[in-house]
Write a structure and sequence with these properties.
The protein is mostly helical. 38% of the residues lie in helices and 8% in strands. The chain has a three-stranded parallel sheet.
C-alpha cells in the first residue's frame, strides 16, 4: 500500500494586518500536532541586511557598515541579495566565490554579530548545502 502526501494549502481573505491570518494558520498547524514555539526576545530584534547595496555590492561596502551597526546596537546581519549569480542555484557569484563569502562574513561574526546568508528558503537538501549556508555555519563554529 502506498500513501500519498497532499500539501496543505491555506487561502485566507482578511482585512487589516497579518495577525489574524497568521493566527489562523498557526492554529491549523497546532491542530495537526505541530508544536508552535514561543517567540523569544531575539525574534523582535532589528536585522540589518545588505540589499541596499543591490546585487553587485563590494565586500568593502558591506564591511564598512560594521561601525555604524555597532553604534546602532544591532546584533543581527544578513548577507542577502547579491552573493549568488542565479536565484535558485545558490552558487557564489563570479568574483566573490567561497573564499570571498568567508572573508565577508568573518568580520561580522568576529565582532559579535549573528550573521547569516539570506535570500533563499532552507527547504531542500540543495539549499541546506549551499555554499553560503555551510559557510555561515562554519564561521559560527569557528568563533
Amino acid at each position: 500500500m502506498k500513501s500519498i502526501l497532499r500539501p496543505s494549502v491555506s487561502f485566507q481573505y482578511f482585512h487589516g494586518d497579518f495577525y489574524e491570518p497568521l493566527r489562523m494558520y498557526s492554529d491549523a498547524l497546532a491542530a495537526q500536532g505541530w508544536k508552535i514555539p514561543k517567540p523569544n526576545s531575539a525574534d523582535y530584534e532589528a536585522n540589518w541586511c545588505g540589499w541596499g547595496y543591490e546585487l553587485k555590492f563590494t565586500p568593502a561596502q558591506m564591511i564598512g557598515t560594521i561601525p555604524k551597526l555597532q553604534e546602532m546596537g544591532l546584533k543581527w546581519t544578513t548577507l542577502d541579495a547579491g552573493w549568488f549569480d542565479i536565484r535558485g542555484d545558490w552558487l557564489p557569484r563570479a568574483g566573490l566565490g567561497v573564499d570571498g563569502i568567508k572573508k565577508l562574513l568573518m568580520p561580522f561574526t568576529r565582532r559579535g554579530f549573528e550573521s547569516r546568508c539570506g535570500g533563499f528558503p532552507l527547504s531542500s537538501k540543495t539549499d541546506r548545502e549551499s555554499t553560503c549556508w555551510t559557510t555561515t555555519l562554519t564561521n559560527l563554529r569557528m568563533l
